[in-house]
Design a protein that fits this description.
- Helix 3 packs parallel to helix 8.
- The chain has an 8-stranded mixed beta sheet, sandwiched between helices.
- The chain has 2 domains: 183 residues, Rossmann fold (3-Layer(aba) Sandwich), CATH 3.40.50.1170; 117 residues, Rossmann fold (3-Layer(aba) Sandwich).
- The protein is built from 9 helices and 16 strands.
- 47% of the residues are buried.
């Protein structure tokens, strides 16, 4: 028997009608009771919390990271499934992946329809996640949804309400689920896992600011003045803004704020192509381009760097490591 631990965190898969809308209130055992358990799998349930995922905080997510590590501290556990709300699933899954250094799988899943829906997708998704957790290894953290398996890194929610809700716009999915099998198509590339972070006394502020026509530095400057230790600039195109935003980025990085550069375009890399406020200038001002990571996961990468150290230069190095980019080696002092 494969021993799989299900960590329940809430979301639509655990939601019931509350009189004016749906909200998470079911315990993990209730969620688990809706799904068929694959043959040869034994289940244990951990009720971590039950909230709608837009309400998750860094404290919730770090609790989840530590709980996954505690569960996998038992060598008798073969895998972990996390039931999670779809709104921020891509963020939590990526955060867990950054600290996951174990061949055993951690598989996130959820639902687009609530717990009691007659045609709900939760039971199938949960069954598929259990199957994936019991059949795969050495793939990092995964997302099992609508018969597909995705790598945590790069996967985002691509449809607000449709059953086929997740994809990596820039990569093929990891595998497919069907007929009692998990067919693996590719092995995702992942940087070495980070050490588990300490528990911060207060939640570090990491903000996102989107550029648009008529966009100015107001919101970016406001984030810095509010105490943001990191800011994700969600730029246009391949990673472009204006000269005024470039000046604001330079001022922010001079104050020790970690600035990451992503794009509001669904797929393709952030690239240094344009000047006059474009990616060339933003990177020269100190922004770190996030490659294929989009806004939510770019923020998670910045958060991980902020949690790792208080040193400004080291935060940049950690962020580049998380992004899979070459990390410059500090020059040795000249000998006299």
């Amino acid at each position: 028997m494969k021993r799989i631990v299900v960590i329940s965190t809430g979301g639509t898969i655990a939601s019931r009608w509350q009189g004016s809308g749906f909200a998470a209130d079911a315990h993990g055992q209730e969620v688990m009771a809706t799904a068929a358990v694959p043959e040869g799998v034994a289940i244990e349930v951990v009720d971590l919390f039950s909230v709608n995922s837009p309400r998750l905080t860094t404290a919730h997510q770090l609790t989840l990271v530590r709980t996954v590590h505690e569960v996998l501290g038992d060598p008798g556990v073969d895998g972990v499934v996390v039931t999670h709300g779809t709104d921020t699933l891509e963020e939590s899954a990526f955060l867990v992946d950054l600290y996951h250094d174990d061949p055993r799988p951690v598989v996130f899943t959820g639902a687009q329809l609530p717990l009691d829906a007659e045609d709900g997708d939760g039971p199938r998704n949960l069954h598929d996640a259990l199957l994936t957790a019991s059949r795969t290894r050495d793939l990092g953290v995964l997302v099992a949804f609508d018969g597909k398996v995705h790598a945590a890194r790069g996967t985002v929610k691509t449809h607000t309400v449709g059953a086929d809700a997740f994809a990596d716009p820039s990569h093929a999915r990891v595998g497919d689920i069907g007929f009692g099998k998990v067919s693996v198509r590719r092995h995702p590339s992942r940087p070495a896992a980070l050490p588990l972070p300490g528990v911060p006394e207060s939640r570090p502020r990491v903000d996102m600011v989107m550029h648009h026509a008529d966009g100015d530095p107001l919101l970016l400057n406001a984030a810095v003045e509010a105490g943001a230790q990191g800011v994700v600039l969600v730029a246009t195109g391949a990673g472009n803004a204006t000269p005024e935003v470039v000046s604001a980025v330079a001022a922010a990085t001079a104050r020790g704020v970690l600035v990451a550069l992503t794009t509001r375009v669904p797929s393709g890399p952030v690239s240094q192509i344009y000047t006059h406020g474009g990616g060339v200038d933003l990177v020269a001002a100190g922004a770190v381009p996030t490659g294929l990571l989009r806004a939510g996961q770019a923020r998670v990468a910045v958060l991980a760097a902020v949690l790792a150290t208080t040193d400004t230069d080291e935060r940049v190095r950690v962020l580049r490591h998380v992004l899979g980019q070459p990390v410059p080696v500090p020059a040795e002092p000249a000998r006299t």
